[in-house]
Amino acid sequence: MTTALADLTDTLDLADLLSEEERMVQQTVRDFVHKEVSPYLPDWYADGHLPADLAPRLGALGLLGMHLEGYGCAGMSATAYGLACLELEAADSGLRSMVSVQGSLAMVAIHRYGSPEQRQHYLPGMAAGETIGCFGLTEPDAGSDPGSMTTRAERRGGDWVLDGRKMWITNGGVAGVAVVWARTGDGVAGFLVPRGTPGFSTADIPRKQSMRASTTSELILDGCRLPDTARLPLARGLSAPLSCLNEARYGILWGAMGAARTCFTAALDYARTRQQFGRPIGGFQLTQDKLVRMHVELEKGLLLAHHLGRVKDARGLRPEQVSFGKLNNTRAALAIAREARTILGASGITLDYPVMRHMANLESVLTYEGTPEIHTLVLGHRLTGVPAYR
What positions does the domain Acyl-CoA oxidase/dehydrogenase middle occupy (predicted)? Predict the structure, then answer.
């Protein structure tokens, strides 16, 4: 985003809400993305991959597990982490997803629920981007209802044997360690499954039309035997993986606004330069109406993200607050992307412009880590006191 467009799109002066450290974090990530990521993303998206050397470069910037303390993690604020997600997803949702699955799912699970030995063994390498992690919760028949998971872990002697399938797992095919959640006789437990463990394999999901610059995989556990030291000792019940999901959803509510910002600025730049009927199309009332509606929703979403970041830094977020942000900002971002595409016309469907790529990605972002329906029911429960999930 050019300085001129940045000035034009910050009507509410949201940049004034940031500390110097937060501005530095945002500018550092923006510069990295602008120089080393965005020029290549259309090809990465078309080819369906992210380069293997990207994770160590992100680790060198301190972006992997950046909001965690110790073990080589940067220990930054929730707001700074949100700003990083904003800039990463301004490039592509797949890039932000790789970072947030690494830092807010896999690393948070180990940091929060792992033993001291597990933390020391895995977290420094994950923070450096030397080891990629994934988070195996969703199953082919257990998405919005993870409590119905069928993956099981049975105790056999001093070991555990895992059997089951996990589906739609970001980073699965490139992960050096998988955090896998399974049902035991005492409830849901978490296990650390290193790549190469007998009985554990992955299969990348082909023919995706969304999140192409991201590895999405199935995890296959077939008599996968693990020692008890692979179990996350502090994780007890389904609340453990759900708490990790709330960490990742927080990054999404920031990241979605990054994708929306890119779509909006692409449409604004196009409207200011595209000539039709002897004038820029931005000079027509109907186009200005589209631009203003997109701009208002973008600024509102960013303001909500800033507020939730400050609340999280001050005292933490309740689940319904995270649901509020994820529900509003993903819906707004997708609407902005769709409206931006109409301004670009036929040009908007090519990879020469970022809008269709972001639109396709946001279709996934809208529904993963909690569909709009689930977040609606979370808020409905909050308002009425009556759970309506079943």
Answer: 134-224
